[in-house]
Amino acid sequence: MQQNELGPVIAQPVYESGDSIKEFSRFGSVFILGAGQTTLLICLPAIAEETGLGYGLLTLMVALGTCLFIFTSPLWGRISDRFGRKRVVQSGLFGFAASFLLLAFALHGLGSGLLSRELAMGLMFLARTLYGLLVSGLYPAVQAWVIDDSNHSNRLSGLSRITVSINAGRLIGPVIPAVLISQGSLFPVLAMVVLAIPLLIQVSILLNDKASEVRQEKGSQEKNQFRQMLKSLWPVLLVACSVTTLFGLLQYLIGPILQARFSYDGVSASRVLSILMMVAAFSTVVAHLLVSRFAQGRLILSLKVGSVLLLFGSFLLITATHLICLIFGLVISAASIALLTPAYTTLASEQVGQQGVLTGTLAMIHTLGYTLGAVLAGLGGSLGIQMAEVFCIFLAVLLLMISFLLVESPKRRSC
Asked: Which fold has domain 218-405?
């Protein structure tokens, strides 16, 4: 689920690698980004109960920050090319700490009576706006920084460590609210600030890097490449958008389902949700290890099997009347993501020559998908949880139809 934009394509490495402090700073920054995503998601039921704000309104607030990534990430990419990666990572960490601090102030002010409900809500939306404007550059800047420090032989391993770092953050992040949520949602939010500040200081004392020499291409040529890619890959890209939208929607629905169907209060729902998110992240990692060999050379079959599994898992999750059924539904859904994501990414990469254009487009679609998932969850929260469940089934069936009817293998397409 993000998060997810790739940095620009670099002509050649311009830095020397091997600095362990720099490595820790970069991967630590991505780790805390993943931890912040899951921590805020898990705290939403408790925040809704403590503040009296509707769950739908809170999910829209979260979606606002995510949606801004789509528009601001390309801008931060150009800034990092011109002024260096370190400054953009600094800005991202500062925005991360400032947004969570502002959110904590709004929660404290509303709980203590210092702030009115309207003012506190405005500060929350301001915090997420700040998050979307500044933090959107952190992940692509770290990716570009790693590419700068690598060559063709070790670039893949460096980028893989970034993926491992953000997933580790999403896996470990739920531990924070699980431990602190009994004291109130304010404490897990403040914990994010406490973790971000040392990283910001550590990045700030690193030596300044230099602006990169980015490969320049004509704008008209880039537009033509992008149009050709959309023309040939639109079914695969539609699969990517459907998968991320559906899984994002499922993640936001678990909290309301725990409260409405299993009678958990806000704090208890957040505590259970933290455990479920760890189970989901662990299921994704295990499934990836188990199905990687199966997916090799069976991309279309993997896409179809993953679509069926996601439909089954989604249906089991949203209709569960026992907690064990909900857990099984979540595990199956998370495992299907581990099968679907590498399948459609590899399938797309085999059909285009410009990998930079492809990865940037997929990153934008992933961000857009998770944003749509949050928006649909918020809309469903306003109209009723049953409407959100209808959205889930519709997306799952749509994904199934695209996988079976529209997506073709590269060999068949070329015939």
From this structure: Growth Hormone; Chain: A; (1.20.1250)
